[in-house]
């Protein structure tokens, strides 16, 4: 039986819970709570003793509890199976996944399992916990996933606290571990939009394929035929593969990591695309933009999907401030009428603020930008309307005037 404690929340938390928000933020009221272990169930009540919600405790964290049910519940096999069935039904009924074997099965708050994600990579599943509250229940999660999906293997990829400070070289370290089933190959081939991508379930902070950009890569394929494409912060070159497969005449992929660049070439090869017909440049994106401009290079599409925060030996990038500088540096290389595609997964930057970054970049770069599309994450990354933080991805397509 899961440990259960009853805790009183303050008036601000009462208001947020009544609005349906799934997070309880630590405050002076939570400091008075009785001590409980991570993973305990917390019955959240107001000062009159009225039950508001049952949550998963994560003591010592900013999000001290995550709401599992606005009412009473037991965290058992039956409850968890019902939530998993609901998540699987959403994807079965509302997503177009033809030619795709890599996508998100459980998206935390968006599927009523806050702080827990499950991704499918072919016949394997990847679990990630965004808080220690789920840790004691991981065996139950694995059992339910095995029962419902019968995967060949289930992995967990741990999330170090200092991910923002970790260098790109950290992706040579093993952050994934097998929880059940059989080991995956070091490079596991999965399908997305009919293309093949190689992922790693053990090595690195990420797997090598950002699943939330699937539909945006498909959109790029409709735009890239016959175009010259520059992909900045290319990572493992998934966008580059999509552009090249669609018939781009030249795709130039730029990333600071030699390891990612080599991985990108492997992805080209996995799709019978000759990487020698395209360009791969290892270097800091700002420096490379200067060199390309000096060489008189121009492109019809420039795409930039930088991390929210990154550090190289030469420079540091952050979404706030860095985006405008990057846009200004890229615009001289973009043809008039060409497409500037900018993307950010920074949860704390609103779309309106992100557009201001693009405005500053356009003014610095001396060009007009007209937005023709502004989209977020695909349907396998749902979020409740009561949880606006769940809409994190910003993918904006602009035309240079």
Structure in words:
Strand 7 and strand 8 (124-129) form a beta hairpin. The chain is α/β, with parallel strands linked by helices and 401 residues long. Mean pLDDT is 93; it is low at 310-315. A 7-stranded mixed beta sheet has the order 15-14-13-16-19-21-20, with helices on both faces. A 5-stranded mixed beta sheet has the order 1-3-4-5-2, covered by helices on one side. Strands 6-7-8-9-10 form a 5-stranded mixed beta sheet. The protein is globular. The chain contains 9 helices and 21 strands. It is 26% helix and 29% strand. The protein has helices at residues 11-18, 77-94, 138-149, 214-223, 238-245, 258-270, 285-294, 319-330, 351-365, and strands spanning 4-8, 23-25, 41-45, 51-57, 63-69, 102-107, 116-121, 124-129, 153-157, 176-181, 188-192, 195-199, 228-232, 250-255, 279-282, 299-304, 309-311, 316-318, 334-344, 369-375, 394-400. The longest helix has 18 residues, at 77-94.
SSE topology:
Elements: E1 4-8, H1 11-18, E2 23-25, E3 41-45, E4 51-57, E5 63-69, H2 77-94, E6 102-107, E7 116-121, E8 124-129, H3 138-149, E9 153-157, E10 176-181, E11 188-192, E12 195-199, H4 214-223, E13 228-232, H5 238-245, E14 250-255, H6 258-270, E15 279-282, H7 285-294, E16 299-304, E17 309-311, E18 316-318, H8 319-330, E19 334-344, H9 351-365, E20 369-375, E21 394-400
Parallel strand pairs: 1-3, 8-9, 13-14, 13-16, 14-15, 16-19
Antiparallel strand pairs: 2-5, 3-4, 4-5, 6-7, 7-8, 9-10, 11-12, 17-18, 19-21, 20-21
